[in-house]
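FIELD: query
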Amino acid sequence: MNSSPIVERPSGHIRLVFALAIAGLLGVFAVYTALIGDTTPLVGVAEAAAGKHRGEVVRLAGKVVSHSGDAGTPAGLRIVLADNATGQTTVLVYHGSVPDAFRDGRRVVVDGTEKASGFEAKTDTLVTKCPSKYQPPTSTGTVTGS
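FIELD: result
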């Protein structure tokens, strides 16, 4: 006869409860990051100029009226942006990479902070919106504009 004590293994219910708790936490995290994780507000030029978000990091959206300079130099690329709705303009200085599609007349979004001295753009955050996505298709199914 073997006199060693019998060791009982934990039931499968404990492991199941633990696994479900972990899965629930991961699910809550995924929903949180999807809905609330990126809370950077998207503002237009007129809203930024009104000072509602002064000192906060925002995404500034507008249409490029003109630009001069070079984003790779210390002086930076000077961009005049117009509000999409009101036409009000602001000037910002941008440093970093410039998308190939960037040019006057294009709609852009850039991250930065509105300060009393003007909009301070973050490096490497300039994004152009593809205009063909916002043009209605012609009767032949092709997109107009460029």
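FIELD: remark
Helices lie at 12-35, 45-49.
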